[in-house]
């Protein structure tokens, strides 16, 4: 899979995309993540990527020219399955969407920008608008990191323990069960006996019950019981 991320602040993406699981997934060749600086596609002396909005509102708007030039260059090199724009107006991001994106070959993520982007980019280039939640960030870079992180970690082979991505919270609309590690007793608080029993059928049953209980208690909306 290849993920191209387009931004005016590439520095914001450097560390989240180049550590830990995302770093290893790239090293293993499971994914190629390419960050593009939109300023490189602005051709005036000051490398301007934004301009004042028509109509006189406050804030700056990302211009068409650098975005069209870069995306059309990328599209001349390969087919893109989705051109995503990160915006609070978009469809709410969830695990189903992460799963779907992880099956695609090539995606572009265009990071949103302060006041917005010229609407012609949304009309004529973008194929999907994604919001990571009902709140407003200063830009779309953190949202792009969240999308890339959640997509890459479920690519087969990205996580050491293949099974663990499938037992994540949300993978079956349930929250994950509690987990414990050594010591079996800490400050008098014991790990549930069943986990020390070695009886894997019983452990699996306990984990399933815990998942349901926690989901009912914390996120009943996931069970449609609200
Ligand atoms: N840009 C600003 N706020 C955002 C949000 N909630 N989701 C995605 N992109 C954004």
Automatic annotation (TrEMBL):
GO terms for biological process: tRNA N1-guanine methylation. Homodimer. It holds the Pfam family tRNA_m1G_MT. The gene is trmD. Residues 1-224 form the tRNA methyltransferase TRMD/TRM10-type domain. NCBIfam families: PRK00026.1 (NF000648), trmD (TIGR00088). This is tRNA (guanine-N(1)-)-methyltransferase. S-adenosyl-L-methionine binds at residues 112, 132-137.
């Amino acid at each position: 899979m290849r993920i191209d991320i387009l931004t005016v602040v590439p520095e914001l993406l450097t560390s989240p995309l180049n550590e830990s699981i995302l770093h290893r997934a790239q090293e293993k060749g499971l994914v190629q993540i390419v960050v593009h600086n939109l300023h490189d596609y602005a051709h005036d002396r000051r490398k301007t990527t934004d301009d004042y909005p028509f109509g006189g509102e406050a804030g700056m708007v990302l211009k068409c020219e650098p975005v069209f030039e870069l995306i059309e260059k990328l599209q001349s090199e390969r087919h893109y399955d989705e051109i995503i724009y990160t915006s609070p107006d978009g469809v709410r991001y969830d695990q189903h969407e992460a799963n779907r994106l992880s099956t695609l070959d090539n995606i572009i993520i265009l990071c949103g920008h302060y006041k917005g982007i010229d609407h012609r980019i949304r009309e004529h280039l973008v194929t999907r608008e994604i919001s990571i939640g009902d709140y407003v960030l200063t830009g779309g870079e953190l949202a792009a990191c969240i999308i890339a992180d959640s997509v890459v970690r479920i690519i087969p082979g990205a996580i050491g323990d293949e099974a663990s991505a499938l037992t994540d919270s949300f993978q079956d609309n349930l929250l994950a069960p509690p987990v414990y590690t050594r010591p079996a007793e800490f400050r008098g608080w014991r790990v549930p006996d069943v986990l020390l029993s070695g009886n894997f059928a019983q452990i699996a049953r306990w984990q399933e019950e815990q998942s349901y209980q926690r989901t009912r208690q914390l996120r009943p909306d996931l069970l449609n019981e609200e």
